[in-house]
Amino acid sequence: MTYNCLNNLEKRVLMRKFFLLLLLLNLSWSVFAQSGITLELYERLRFPAPILTRPVVFGKNIFLTLSNGDVLCLERGGGRRKWEYYTGEKITATPVLSEKQLLFGAYDGKFRALDSRSGNLLWEFKAQGIIGEKAALDKNTVYFGGEDNFLYALNLKDGRLKWRFETRGKVRTTPALYKDYLIFGSFDRYIYCLNKNNGRLLWQFRTNAANLASPLITDNTIFIGSYDSYLYALNLNGRQLWYFPAGNSIHFGAVEVGEWIVFADRDRCLYCLSKNGELIWKKKLAGQVTGPLVVIKDTVALSQNNGQLTITNGYDGSRTQNWRLDDNQTLQVNYSNRQLFTTDANGYFQIYDLRPK
Fold first, then answer.
1. What confidence category does residue 18 fall into, taking pLDDT thresholds of 50, 70 and 90?
2. Does the domain made of 1-45+291-357 have the CATH classification 3.20.20.450?
């Protein structure tokens, strides 16, 4: 009995320490947002081919895909190569992780599932066109679009086709899942809402151009940008609530920062809106955004085609810091545990520590 009481006491002490650590991390990040940060190079590796996708970080593993078809698993801290799988095809779709599976599509039209521990092929599914964008997952199903105009739903366990839905244009966007809804855009100018369980069309909304941006769904509202230069807000029945005119086409999805919606257009501008469509602030960037925006607490990190990394306060845009990481090469950015991970078209993979000033 005494032994068990001591164990419970130790657990309570450990829990207090854990919550104190979380509090300190949040306070530290608040200071970062207000006072700025330093970016310190932790690790830098170079590979023989461009890296056109975001690095995927999970625990001590880092997963990279190269444009020459290589898929790599590296050890975080040191970069030791744990395994390698070669597809022989160009890869522009960032992989997704589901328990012990690494899933991605490629230019040969194949969607593959690898064992994330060994790199062994578990299954593959052949679509009828290029698969160029990241997939979406729920518990038992993986969803992705292709340049054959279809949106596919596959069984996660064995890659069996559950259903597919045909649009009238390429599907080059990552679908969004919300309850039983699946939302995505197409080159055919429509935004589609399907029942994720059977692929049945629930509604469609027409824009004035192709739709490549991934939808953001929050507070029962869908926020999605289009190449017609508008950011649309729709309810879950597909009715337009409002739209906001940007200065140019919108390629990447909006993100939620607290109560605000932040997105970028191809006119090198970053916008912050209220969820009612009111402009809160707007910033001019030095280059075009080259990948999805990354939310880090109350800040937004983004990469640009001039090799510049930008981190800005998402609430009011009052503090913006810029770093030139590479010379005019496309960058992709991800974040995990107070480190930024970047890849670029020169084949560099870099890890940076973020430290408050």
1. very low
2. no
